Amino acid sequence: AVGFAQIDSLFNKFTFLQTEYDTNYVKKGLSDWAVHFYLQNRNNSFSSQDQTRHQSVYFDPLTNMTLGAGGSYKNFSLDFGFPIQNNKGDTAHATGLDFSTSLFVGQHVSDMGFRRFRGYYVSGYDSVQNELRSVFRSDIATANLYLNYLYNFNYRRFSFNASFIGREMQIKSAGAPLAGFFFSYMDLHANEPVVPPEFDIYYGSSIRISEANLWTLGLMGGYAYTFVLPARFYLTLSLVPGIAFTTGEVKSDVYYEIGEPVEVSFKLISKNAFGYSGKRFYGYLSSTTDRYWLRLSKEDQFKNNLSRWRFLVGYLINKADKR
Predict the structure, then answer these.
(1) What's the pLDDT at 31?
(2) What is the mean pLDDT of residues 19-38?
(3) Using an 8 Å Cβ cutoff, are 71 and 78 in contact?
(4) Distance CA 193, CA 190 (A)
């Protein structure tokens, strides 16, 4: 049988993980085992804007607030949660699947996941009623597969693990340049144009989209910094812009391709946390935003937003070293 220790050793070799930390800045190996409880909210929204009239239509899925618990052993963590609140109550046909995982070890910082939602709230200006309205569309569905990878150039003195996992501790304030790549695939489809007819009179025909298949690959670079505060508190801020290259096709009245051969656009990732690193207890409130902007036509700009906030409280079962 293969034990946890053997798996962890193979994992370090496979990822070329460096373990030579500057112990004046980062303390690692605080505990092999930990348990935690969390409250979390995720969202996979998007919007479409008519660049000529400067008006937008917003699409928000059924979002769940999740309460859960989990445990971790070294670099491995497992969570289980269940929804406790929906953003609306009249969504019998709405469904959602959200799987994501993160890796914050040494110089490696990565996120990957798959999200699938059916049923969106469409919000915009109703020119007939002359008011802002929100209608539910059970036929709008999206599927999104994504991978973000960043290399931490100052991993010896700066730890993402300390801010977002809790198995390490940032002793002194420090920052790190970050650089990496990203990939995503998004599928959008509906039985009819995603903009409802009552909004279409005002927004025109430029965003009469009913299907889209978009492949995106790009590069990004930025900076992250952790402020070590008194009484074991800390604040981590990061900003990582990127340039995206997208290809694919969109269906309006007919199918048409995006870009010639690709469309160049902008991407932005931000990971932030405010937390506490105690001798036994630790916790944090974190937010993650992942957005990119894409021009689907001369008049229409598309913005995709993956976001999450999380409140977590954890307990170190056995300490490998004094904090």
Answers:
(1) 75
(2) 84
(3) yes
(4) 7
Classified as helix, coil or strand, 17 is: coil
Asked whether residue 185 carries a pLDDT value surpassing 50, the answer given is yes
Examine the pLDDT at 230 and tell me if it is beyond 60: yes
Whose tokens are 């695939």? That residue is 185
Higher pLDDT, 50 or 65: 65
pLDDT digits (tens, 9 = 90+) for 278-294: 888 999 999 999 988 88
Q: Quote the CA–CA distance of 45 and 303 in Å, as a whole number.
A: 9
| Helix (H/G/I), strand (E/B), else coil: 51 | coil
Q: How far apart are CA 192 and CA 195, in angstroms?
A: 8
Using alpha carbons, list the distances in angstroms from residue 108 to 15, 27, 150, 190. Answer: 8, 17, 6, 38
On average, the pLDDT of the chain sits at 81
Q: Buried (b) or exposed (e) across 103-123, using 16+ Cβ within 10 A?
A: bbbbbbbbbebebbbbbbbbb
Contact 258, 248 (CB under 8 A): yes
- The answer to whether the CB of 235 falls within 8 A of the CB of 284 is no
Contact present, 219 and 150 (Cβ < 8 Å): no
As a whole number of angstroms, the distance between CA 84 and CA 15 comes to: 37
